């Protein structure tokens, strides 16, 4: 029996338009006073104080979070809204021979389907546009979308995905980045798998190593990490009668998101409105468009607002994750523990598409020497494609990886030389005016201050 | 037996994009009652950016945080912004806001100057007043000045501006150049307890001392650091996406992808280094990403201090630590 | 993720539930707290079309002490067990094990019977109930039967229950109420952890010698297991470190763990050794 | 099937398919969107609500199972003139960042303080272990709960 819940005029009680339910008419319990949209509450002192800077002012958005009133995308509902789901690749590397959506399209409750061929410009990406919105010729990792469905409910859309028939022809799967370096199987032919690299050279590293009293050589490796925003990616698209599309999106970068939309949809930017709602956690994972073009086109096809909320699995497999690094560090020091030379080679597992690898390899390479004065430095880094989840922007862009390496090796050096770990850092740390690995003069430098303040707070006794 | 150890790690981290332009624009409108509206194209992604940006505008205008309403995140109404990425919001968008607010404030100064019988550059905006530098008793309430500027002078106090951190291209052969305009620095020290029979690592305490230039909102800075550390603890000990031999993720869910819960987080002592960056908005730099940078390194060094094993691949799961302990014991025997 | 359409029944007695199950056959499934089943139905929609919610059946409720022992209804939640003063006093290891399951929300809904019926090798409530030699009562179309808890587990996710049968209650025999017992669990983190290995031990010390020792291991074999060899070894022995360590080595020999993405076989064996010793040692030290 | 609940003191009912979860019932049929969908399988706790005095993950509880129960959601915490002490402390002490875990976190905290007005640090952490947060490291959340507990005891 179908029922249609509506709100009565004062928005206080639910009315069920259904005779049987009407007998169980909603009863408002006077003493409880539950509220939906309260109140004007006093602001905290910090918000009212001048000067404003330095105040631990509370957040107006936090008040709404606490009341449960913040509208994240998934909380927004429009009349006649329908729901989209994206079918993910069943293969990590394969040619797509055919995609048949007819059976899904014929299902009751399904409004439309979409494949990559229907997307005006089916590529995107912040550095290289090497990623399809929906794969139409090749899938390069299991998170690639191959087709989308819009239906009356998520439940129906989910069932419809099962009716889409995709025929694949297997291609060799390359998972190991060191294997990928050999270029025996190309993931984006005819391009090499090594899709970006970076070199930093300062001084004469071989000379510096030759002059060193001790040389340390270590390899460090890191893993894939997921951002885990507690809010999964979500967006809603509404294509209107003027041919203008509005997107409500959990994207953290709407201006550039609009450029991506304009490019993929082949639509003037003036015809696109991106609204960034309150985002339930980003950490770098929500810095690129994902399914926004798909929803826009499904809305255009169906004349309805279309929403898609990622499942937690979508979040893991199809949004970006943190780059694993393989890092070879060779460091020469003198007897006092002063670093004379450091030679670094790094391989970044780039996953299936470039995404924000350019920034990651750049920051990773520049930062890899650590916050230390090193006259002789050579850093060489390569990013390679593999048939795994795309690695992209994530809190720190390569810095947590290289910090793990340079700080682990610092302790190795300290241990061998019998120097306290705090002391060896103080001996090498940047000072105001130090030259960075790119020979930039640094200002407002407080490495030493942070080391000493932390040691004091911790109660660090130098060994 | 449980063995304790301590480990230290320091780091540096840049603000903004690597060389590439990453501008922000902003518009500040002073209302006739002395409150203001800030338009920014960035998006609130949880870090408290909008509150901090509002504080920056308020500071330049000499008004309170609550006097500024922030409009954000709509390409139809808000100006260009590179977005919530690369720890750039406070610094880059903040600098754009300072400039926009200064432009609006200049209109107020010009409107107030004849009334106070001084030149515009002899005025300052403080405590909701436009006052004469060095003579704070000679002032007009900002509301009066804003009203005067709009209704008498006919020039509403609206300012727009943009900012992009100045950089110098890196040489393709040597990487030499100036990829960023500023950097932040930090140290974290971890204390761990390692069970030498199971390899289990419990992080007992982390002291984190970070630089963010002048903190605009110390409470929100602390919150960023605490959250970044939790991401670092997970990175150090638990979190890893695993793939099978066919490239399929094995653990794409929160049951089997192990991020820290409230029971896994250590006691935190978070502090800020006293600092001021003259290139930043009111001396501020940024803090978002660096908070997660040194944690894993500090924990690995603490494990080494506790049980003498060097973990060279993350994460240091109990099994990995135990395997290393058993290997060490075998070598020593 | 969405479940496919289904019907929902809420029988008022065990016999009504059994009758419903016979009527619906393999399309139907008993629903307890649902913390496992609802998740399964979201992952594999379409597998079940009738849910028979048994949590409102009075026979499946209650924690009662009698001359036979302590009876716990199968629909009693972990939270109720943890908070029950009787359980805290008489079967602390079961309370401890219940406390390590999931988090507050899971423990509020999840039932002890559900944990046993789901029958994953790592079920946290199994080892502590096993070392207290619990028996389970089952009702089916042919009436009631009572069996030792070890015999309840047949294989991974497979119990001895016939499709129409329902687990009604668990009885911890009188002689083992208050017996010193300890439970330990190793997981990949502290909160909401799934067991890599879990171990429970129980024993008495009589005239300075170990009496009635029981050791049970989880997550190291297709079902939770008892370590009978080590138990008979310890019987009547002095509670020396050497003997406890020897028993722990026997537990390692009995365990048949596998390697999966959570942990390797050899690491699980290391955990069995350490945790068996630690639970035994705690029993000895807390007599 | 007709499911009738007393939600935040108000009788609410709707006719829903039996496979409807309590979360879906609250969000889609009653427009109470304070409880969130984060993982859909009871791992993250964003959907936490209180049913007959116990906190549950509403994403894995059928609405049918809650039929006839009293349900408290985040929308039932504040009154027209006052925030709940927990909401006040969470806001003032910066415990809410992106806020997506916040409503579930507040419900778990409420459940804890309802039962235990003066919890220890461990008891608080234990009570929150089913609510994942990626922004705060839990630190300010724990501080806020202690602060609210203190204020509630003093009131």
Give an account of the 3D structure.
The complex is a heterotetramer of chains A (463), B (333), C (287) and D (155). With 463 residues, chain A is an alpha+beta fold. Chain A folds into four domains: 38 residues, no CATH class; 89 residues, Alpha-Beta Complex (Aldehyde Oxidoreductase, domain 3), CATH 3.90.1170.50; 136 residues, Aldehyde Oxidoreductase, domain 4 (2-Layer Sandwich); 85 residues, Aldehyde Oxidoreductase, domain 4. Helix content of chain A is 26%, strand content 23%. The longest helix of chain A is centred in the last third of the chain and has 19 residues. Chain A starts with a strand and ends in a 5-residue tail after the last helix. Chain C has 287 residues and is an alpha+beta fold. Chain C folds into three domains: 47 residues, Uridine Diphospho-n-acetylenolpyruvylglucosamine Reductase, domain 2, CATH 3.30.43.10; 119 residues, Uridine Diphospho-n-acetylenolpyruvylglucosamine Reductase, domain 3; 105 residues, CO dehydrogenase flavoprotein, C-terminal domain (Enolase-like, domain 1). Chain C is 36% helix and 25% strand. In chain C, helix 11 runs antiparallel to helix 12. The model of chain C has no long low-confidence stretch (mean pLDDT 96). Chain D is globular. Chain D has five helices and five strands, in the order E-E-H-E-E-E-H-H-H-H. In chain D, 35% of the residues lie in helices and 15% in strands. Chain D is α+β, with helices and mostly antiparallel strands and 155 residues long. Chain D folds into two domains: 75 residues, Ubiquitin-like (UB roll), CATH 3.10.20; 70 residues, DNA polymerase, domain 1. The mean pLDDT of chain D is 96. Chains in contact: A-B, A-C, A-D, B-C, B-D, C-D. Chains A and B meet through helix 2, strand 9, strand 10, helix 8 and strand 13 of A and strand 1, helix 1, strand 9, strand 10 and helix 4 of B.
């Amino acid at each position: 029996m179908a029922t249609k819940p509506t709100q009565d005029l004062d928005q206080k009680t639910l009315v069920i338009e259904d005779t049987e339910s009407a007998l169980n008419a909603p009863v408002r319990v006077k003493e409880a006073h539950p509220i939906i949209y309260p109140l004007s509450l006093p602001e905290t002192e910090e918000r009212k104080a001048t000067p404003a800077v330095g105040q631990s002012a509370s957040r107006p958005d936090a008040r709404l979070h606490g009341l449960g009133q913040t509208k994240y995308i998934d909380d927004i509902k429009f009349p006649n809204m329908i729901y989209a789901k994206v079918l993910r690749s069943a293969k990590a590397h394969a040619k797509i021979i055919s995609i048949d959506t007819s059976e899904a399209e014929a299902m009751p409750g399904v409004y439309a389907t979409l494949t990559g061929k229907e997307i005006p410009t089916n590529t995107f990406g912040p550095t290289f546009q090497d990623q399809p919105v929906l794969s139409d010729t090749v899938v390069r990792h299991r998170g690639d979308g191959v087709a989308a469905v819009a239906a009356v409910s998520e439940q129906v859309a989910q069932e419809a995905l099962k009716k889409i028939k995709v025929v694949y022809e297997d291609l060799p799967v390359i998972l190991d980045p060191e294997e990928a370096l050999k270029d025996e199987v190309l993931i984006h032919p005819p391009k090499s798998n090594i899709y970006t690299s970076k070199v930093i050279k300062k001084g004469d590293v071989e000379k510096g190593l030759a002059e060193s009293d001790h040389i340390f050589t270590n390899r460090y490796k890191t893993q894939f990490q997921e951002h885990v925003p507690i809010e999964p990616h979500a967006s809603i698209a509404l294509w209107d009668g003027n041919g203008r599309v509005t997107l409500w999106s959990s994207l953290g970068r709407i201006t550039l998101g609009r450029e991506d939309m304009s490019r993929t949809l082949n639509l003037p930017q003036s015809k696109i409105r991106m609204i960034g709602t309150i985002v339930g956690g980003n950490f770098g994972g929500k810095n690129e468009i994902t399914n926004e073009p798909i929803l826009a086109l499904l809305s255009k096809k169906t004349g309805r607002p279309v929403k898609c909320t990622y499942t937690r699995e979508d979040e893991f497999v199809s949004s970006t994750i943190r780059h694993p690094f393989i890092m070879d560090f060779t460091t020469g020091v003198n007897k006092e523990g002063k670093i004379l030379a450091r030679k670094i080679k790094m391989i970044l597992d780039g996953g299936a598409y470039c995404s924000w690898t350019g920034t990651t390899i750049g920051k990773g390479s520049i930062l890899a020497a650590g916050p230390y004065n090193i006259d002789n430095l050579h850093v060489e880094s390569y990013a390679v494609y593999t048939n795994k989840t795309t690695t992209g922007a994530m809190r720190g862009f390569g810095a947590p990886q290289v910090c793990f390496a340079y700080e682990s090796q610092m302790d190795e050096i300290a241990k061998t030389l019998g120097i306290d770990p705090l002391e060896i850092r103080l001996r090498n740390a940047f000072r105001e005016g130090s030259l960075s690995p790119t020979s930039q003069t640094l200002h407002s430098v407080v490495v030493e201050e942070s080391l000493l303040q932390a040691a004091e707070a911790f109660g660090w006794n130098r060994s | 037996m449980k063995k304790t150890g301590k480990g230290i790690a320091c780091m540096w981290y840049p603000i903004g994009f690597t060389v590439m332009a990453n501008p922000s624009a902003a518009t500040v409108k002073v209302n006739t009652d002395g409150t203001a509206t800030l338009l920014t194209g960035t998006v609130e992604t949880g870090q408290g950016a909008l509150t901090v940006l509002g504080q920056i505008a308020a500071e330049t205008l000499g008004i309170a945080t609550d006097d500024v309403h922030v409009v954000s995140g709509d390409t139809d109404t808000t100006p260009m912004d590179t977005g919530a990425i690369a720890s750039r919001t406070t610094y880059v968008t903040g600098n754009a806001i300072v400039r926009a607010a200064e432009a609006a404030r200049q209109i107020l100064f010009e409107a107030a100057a004849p009334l106070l019988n001084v030149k515009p550059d002899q005025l300052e905006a403080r405590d909701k007043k436009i006052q004469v530098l060095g003579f704070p008793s000679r002032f007009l309430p900002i509301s009066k000045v804003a009203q005067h500027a709009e209704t008498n002078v006919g020039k509403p106090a609206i300012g727009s501006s943009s900012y992009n951190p100045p950089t110098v291209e890196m040489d393709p052969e040597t990487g030499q150049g100036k990829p960023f305009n500023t950097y932040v620095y930090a140290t974290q020290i971890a204390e761990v307890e390692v069970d030498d029979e199971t390899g289990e690592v419990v992080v007992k305490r982390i002291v984190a001392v970070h630089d963010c230039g002048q903190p605009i909102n110390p409470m929100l800075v602390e919150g960023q650091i605490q959250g970044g550390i939790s991401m670092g603890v997970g990175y150090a000990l638990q979190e890893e996406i695993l793939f099978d031999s066919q490239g399929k993720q094995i653990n794409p869910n929160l049951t089997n992808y192990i991020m820290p819960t409230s029971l896994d987080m250590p006691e935190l002592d978070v502090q800020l280094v006293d600092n001021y960056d003259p290139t930043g908005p009111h001396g501020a730099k940024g803090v978002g990403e660096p908070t997660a940078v040194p944690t894993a390194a500090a924990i690995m060094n603490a494990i080494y201090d506790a049980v003498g094993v060097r973990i060279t691949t993350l994460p240091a799961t109990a099994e990995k630590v135990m395997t290393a302990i058993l290997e060490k014991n075998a070598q020593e025997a | 993720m969405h479940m496919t359409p289904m019907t929902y029944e809420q029988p008022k007695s065990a016999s009504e539930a059994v009758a419903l199950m016979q009527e619906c056959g393999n399309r139907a499934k008993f629903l307890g707290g649902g913390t496992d089943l609802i998740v399964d139905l979201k992952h594999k929609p379409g597998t079940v079309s009738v849910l028979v919610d048994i949590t409102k059946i009075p026979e499946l409720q209650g924690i009662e002490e009698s001359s036979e022992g302590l009876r716990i209804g199968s629909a009693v939640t972990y939270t109720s067990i943890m908070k029950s003063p009787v359980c805290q006093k008489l079967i602390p290891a079961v309370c401890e094990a219940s406390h390590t399951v999931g988090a507050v929300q899971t423990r509020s809904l999840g039932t002890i019977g559900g944990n046993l019926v789901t029958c994953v090798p790592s079920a946290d409530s199994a080892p502590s109930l096993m070392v207290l030699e619990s028996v389970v009562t089952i009702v089916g179309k042919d009436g009631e039967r009572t069996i030792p808890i070890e015999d309840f587990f047949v294989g991974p996710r497979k119990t001895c229950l016939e499709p129409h049968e329902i687990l009604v209650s668990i009885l911890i025999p009188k002689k083992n109420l208050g017996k010193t017992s300890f439970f330990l669990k190793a997981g990949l983190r502290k909160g909401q952890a799934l067991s890599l290995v879990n171990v429970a031990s129980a024993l008495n010390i009589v005239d300075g010698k170990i009496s009635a020792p029981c050791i049970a291991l989880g997550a190291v074999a297709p079902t939770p297991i008892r370590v009978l060899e080590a138990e008979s070894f310890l019987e009547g022995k002095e509670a020396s470190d050497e003997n406890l360590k020897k028993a722990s080595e026997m537990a390692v020999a009995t365990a048949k763990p596998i390697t999966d993405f959570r942990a390797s076989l050899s690491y699980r064996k290391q955990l069995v050794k350490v945790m068996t010793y630690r639970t035994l040692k705690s029993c000895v030290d807390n007599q | 099937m007709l499911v009738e609940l007393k939600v935040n003191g108000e009788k609410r009912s709707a006719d829903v398919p039996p496979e409807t979860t309590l979360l879906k019932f609250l969000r889609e049929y009653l427009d109470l969107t304070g409880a969130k969908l984060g993982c859909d399988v009871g791992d993250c706790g964003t959907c936490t609500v209180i049913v007959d005095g116990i906190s549950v993950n509403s994403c894995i509880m059928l609405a049918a199972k809650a039929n006839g129960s009293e349900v408290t959601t985040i929308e039932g915490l504040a009154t027209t003139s006052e925030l709940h002490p927990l909401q006040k402390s969470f806001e003032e002490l910066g415990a809410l960042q992106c806020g997506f875990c916040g409503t579930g976190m507040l419900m778990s905290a409420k459940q804890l303080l309802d039962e235990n007005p003066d919890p220890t640090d461990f008891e608080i952490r234990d009570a929150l272990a089913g609510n994942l947060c990626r922004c705060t490291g839990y630190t300010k959340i724990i501080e806020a709960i202690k602060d609210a507990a203190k204020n509630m005891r003093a009131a």
